[in-house]
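Kindly inspect both lines:
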Amino acid sequence: MHALDLIVIAVYLVVIVAIGVIFGRNQSRKEFFKASGSMGWLAVGLSVMATLFSSNSFVFYPSAAFGNGLKIALSLVAFALMTPIVIWVFIPVYARLKVETAYEYLEKRYHVSVRALASGLFILLRIGWMASATYAAALVVASVANVPETAVIIVLGIVSIGYTMLGGLRAVMWTDVIQFFVFALTILLSVGLILAKTESGIGEVFHTYFDDREGLIIDFAPSMTLAYGSWAILIGIFLEGLSAFGVDQVAVQRYISAKSEKTSQIGAAVNLLGMWIVLPGLLMIGIALYSWYSLHPGELGTGATVTEVLANEGSKVSDRAMPEFVRLHFPPGMGGLFLAALIAAIMSSIDSGIHSVTTAVVVDFRDRLLPKLRPVTELGELRSIRIMVLFFGIISVTLACLVGPLGDVFAIAKKLTAAFGGPLLALFILAFFFRRTTWQGVLLSVSLSTVFTLVLMYQKPDWFSVWFWPIGFSLSLVLGLVTSYLFPARETQLTYRQIMRDHPPEKEV
């Protein structure tokens, strides 16, 4: 690495830590968890986008475009379809009931046990996601910088935990905003540099990419094993996005930090716009890399053509394409910017994850089930919250160091989130729209569906991982409707229709 690269990385880390120190002043519980409900639409939207579209995405999308075509681009359609539902269904519920966590609503609608189950599923989902996302990006940082990935994970984990403990949600969100612009700028410059190196125009690059290759954009073959099949992407990514942006506490925490319901809704629209900017850019990196390595196949460690290399080595060479290009061709300073972008992705995954997990544990478990453990003073409360942030940060960093030997981190992440996230989404849909559902029925159905999905994914390891989203979701939904009739019905409160009718939005000040 050049000295200029190290300077770029150092400046970035200093700025991020400084934000934590600045926002660490005058902290309170409300400020730490909700940023005092004062955040604007830009911070809300870009923070949601940077958090839930970070480490895995930054590594995965260029690799997928390079090795598997552009079928994954249908994710943009899925995101566009799910965003209006988040804006007009989920956000109004949280804003009008003034909840601290999404799962607080489930107690109001059903029972405290349902709230505890949902919050527990979220905690398991988010810890697993943090570990896999952190490892995926750290692996690339380590290969480019020629340092051990464990060292990358530990150092960035310490920094992320530190500024999260100091500055709370406000620091996390503003660092997310900076991180969004860092990796957006990096994507733009990376595409430009690769195109300049190939000395080809956009048209020629696309011609090279599509020449003598079929099924690169869509493939509606009805197959459970087809990687990036179009049905799996449209259905699975739609459900994954609806769960991530609708019922995941990471996103919900940002919505409830906003000044108003309308501010949150605008932020959700900004999030979609950010994805439509970043995702095509990441895919373009993969397309441009394919053109480059078509001209220089020897840089992948073999004299064969790119098509032959992909046929023989598959995802291994796809994952190696971008780090190799950065290491060999990025000029001083720009290599540092690329690493800063990956570092941003890692830190965004860690800070948001440990903050939201801590919030769920404090609000849904300690305060609700063990209220006597809550400190009496504000200072004592802040100290106990920060200790929990440290605790969950250590767990997440430790798991990230251990996740590598488990195999394909993308598949692992998708399977874990599907097993927990699919039933969790179904739980909210049952609560919103099905009056006859009972707390016993949904509790039983979600528990059984989660276990069944976990068992199925290990019995069917060859199934494309995204398929487990519709499996977990639909099974939980159907079982919830059926098993609810095994228990006596009671007066229904707080369905979506009732909330919209009886809880009008607050007027903006």
